[in-house]
Task: structure prediction
Amino acid sequence: MLITHDPAKAADFLRKGELVAFPTETVYGLGASIHDEAAVRAVYAAKGRPLNHPLIVHINGMQGLQRYFSKVSEHAQLLAKHFWPGPLTLVCSKSDEVPNIVTGGQKSVALRWPRHALAQHMLELLDHGVAAPSANRFGRISSTTAEHVREEFADAISCVLDGGPCAVGLESTIVDVRSEQPHILRAGSITQDMISELLKVSAEQKSESDIRVPGQLPSHYAPYTPLFVSESEHFKQTVDTIRVHYKNLVLLASSCPSSSKASDLFFKLPADPEVYAHQFYALLRKADNSKKDAIVIELPIKHGIGLAIRDRLSRAQHR
Ligand code: TXA
Ligand code: MG
Result:
């Protein structure tokens, strides 16, 4: 696996039909040219992802909207103008140019123009979009550094474009803009309030059973170690309860509870939800790699990106 900082090298690999992991401001993506069916199939295979779970098409510039959506809705236009490039993915009916393999057979396509400079350079060197899910094995913790990608895939992929740690650290907000009322399919740093305010219509948070979105299935974003979540005010009590069944714990919290043991591992979580998000997957991975019996994590506040982190944690937790 080649780890490079050069977007031209990454673009060359994509042109040759090879898979390239690349940085975005949210998480690393595992990319293939949308017009190379074998490469797109290799993305599904490398992740262990079912073929009917659609991929996001990454573009560089507003022109991708006209090219890959069959009709650009007013909401799509407004949201793209305001939030692109950025951590927002728009879902609309696809144009004929988008191959079915990319959309898992659906008539819609998800589009995103990322804000990361290296991703933008790489995309600029290609004359079409790059299909990319998050660069992690299906159901597992997303990657926010090149090292995480290496940990997930080793030599199963040819190249990682290393753009350092992802600034946001959590996957993009996904909005379905096909109808008058926008539907949020996945929460992210661009919140329901921000979207409703811009469009002057209330955006609806879809319930998980309504849609076929793998990030919305139970047990996603999950470590191998059993994970338990807790509200701040009950953290000590939760730790004490879990200790009855699990001896050695990893605790991720704003402060270490008085009942922690010498054999526990403690990672301090920042109170600011944006900083929490930035460190979230890296800390979860570290906690998982420490091979303790269980992980207990304190939930962030119910505000801003804190809501999106809570959504991921509710799907990652042990059941
Ligand atoms: O931040 C992100 O969105 C990252 C970076 C790499 O762009 N990508 C990412 O991809 O999180 P992935 O595949 O892990 O999650 C994309 C989500 C999936 O839940 C998928 O089902 C949904 O987007 N999606 C893709 N196309 C869709 C469509 N046509 N309709 C509804 N959902 C769609
Ligand atoms: Mg994912």
In short: The radius of gyration is 20 Å. The longest strand covers residues 88-93. The longest helix spans residues 273-289. The chain is about 30% helix and 20% strand.
